[in-house]
Amino acid sequence: MISERSFSLETPDGETLRGEVRTPRARETDTGILVLHGFKGFRRWGFFPTLCESLARAGHTVVSFDFSRNGVGPGGLDFDELEAFAQNTFSRELDEALQVGWAFREGDLGVPAPRRLGLLGHSRGGGIAVLAADRGPFDALVTWAAVATFDRWPDAVKEAWRRDGRIHIPNARTGQAMPLDRALLDDLETNRETLDIEAAAGRVDLPWLIVHGTDDTAVDPADSERLLEAQPRATSRMIEGAGHTFGATHPFEGVGPELESALEATIRHFERALGPGLAGPASFAQD
Predict the structure, then answer these.
(1) What pTM did the predictor assign?
(2) Long-range contact set of residues 25-29: C-beta below 8 Å, sequence gap at least 24
(3) Is 279 a residue whose pLDDT tops 70?
(4) Into how many domains does the chain fold?
(5) CATH number where 246 lies
């Protein structure tokens, strides 16, 4: 059993970060894990609640949150703030991951400060996690289907983006055309050194598990190979037959074999890197 509470933080420029803290119910723990969602993602998408609950059952305090401009409003489930989504940048997400990470580490989220703190990111959030692990208050890292670079658009698309000031990305699940303003491209080109995931990977000096599906069509498994080449001390776990979300959908329909493999590998890694926690073995069933 776990307990859950909501929190909100204000960014330096007045945006709101909304999230949840999950803790093993009626049991003490001195380890924590921060979870980051990816592009066109949010903290309540698909597998994220089950991921966080499983990590909490394994004995860790777990924090997840929505980046302030991920496009999801206070309801937490719908892309109803598309203009905010359009104005998001990679640098903003990195700053917000570090802000929440430091607040967690310093005991400013309504729970005791953890003695050791892990970080997990999925997809684009995996790239942000690598950057944050290089400069933040973290002791262990797991990336799921992480990108090795944020520069993922053909030159022709970037040329039109600069000319028109905005492009649109289809969301196959919702049918929405998700706008991206030129600020995202400008941020990438202006801050290439700061946002260089592979360079940061080479500097990551903490236990790191790279998880990727062999059948991922959204982020090629070759990205995981690039990260492992940049940081050979990392550990790689390829999930045979798994796609980008390890078989999970939204709305969530349960834990299949690919997601279970990713969860088990992740829990084992954090147990080795952070300590076993004090809540006993994890369960993937819902409370």
Answers:
(1) 0.96
(2) 25/1, 26/1, 27/59, 27/278, 27/279, 28/278, 29/59, 29/60, 29/61, 29/114, 29/277, 29/278, 29/279
(3) no
(4) 1
(5) 3.40.50.1820
